[in-house]
Amino acid sequence: MIIHDVEQGTPEWLALRLGIPTASEFAKIITSTGKASTSANTYMHKLLGEWCAGKPEDTYSNDDIERGNLQEEEARDYYQFIHDLEDHQIEQVGFVTTDDGLIGCSPDGLVMSNGGIEIKCPRMSGHVETILRGKPPTKYLPQIHGCMFVTERDYWDFISYHQYIEPFVIRVNRDDEYIKKMASALSDFNEKLNEAKDQLIDYKKVAA
User: Fold this and answer.
1) pLDDT score for 207
2) Residue 64: CB partners within 8 Å, gap ≥ 6?
3) To bridge 146 with a disulfide, which of 23, 70, 152, 174 should be the other Cys (CB 3.0-4.6 Å)?
């Protein structure tokens, strides 16, 4: 595991992510049940396009994303308070990769030596649905377990936060059987990704 000292959202952070699978998109490679995702090829083409161009695809913003950006710090402070953690016990990091740099994640926080957090700030309806279900939405499980895989941690606390409703926090423990399937799926994905990069090498944009 390598922790890269960059700020999320900066050009340096974007450069580290360029052309490699990252945990927030692992659901496009492996489903929450451990099966191959039908979105893998589309995701691979996106990564290949970014690799060839030397820049990420244009991103978009909406009210949900803006709300998440604004409330994430509040959610982290709440988590730190309820767990009575000192500042140094919850580390904000920009980007983490496996030792070979071929797989990455952007944790919302690393907790002491063995855990991490994933913060989501959904709309009120989504937040209430998560509370009633009593567990994280299924679509986030590949991301959560992917973060544990990359960071070599044993648990990840999922935080659903809305400023007008009490937060919901639940711990997801490491599932080695699922992570083994994930590691295999990521290895296969990267093998195909690298083969495609070899085919596209003549189309890669050379920086001026």
Assistant:
1) 57
2) 122, 123
3) 23
The span from the CA of 205 to the CA of 182, in Å, is: 31
Residue 64 lies in a domain: yes
Residue 208, in any domain of the structure: no
Whether the CA torsion 67, 68, 70, 74 is positive or negative: it is: positive
Handedness of CA 180, 186, 189, 190 (dihedral sign): negative
pLDDT tens for 7-19 read 988 999 999 999 9
Question: What count of Cα atoms within 13 Å lies in the side-chain half-sphere of residue 105?
Answer: 26
Which residue, chain included where needed, has tokens 């007008």? 164
Flag whether the pTM goes above 0.85: yes
The number of residues in the chain equals 208
CATH number reported for the structural domain that contains residue 35 in this entry: 3.90.320.10
Inter-CA distances, 123 with 90, 120, 133, 138, Å: 26, 10, 16, 17
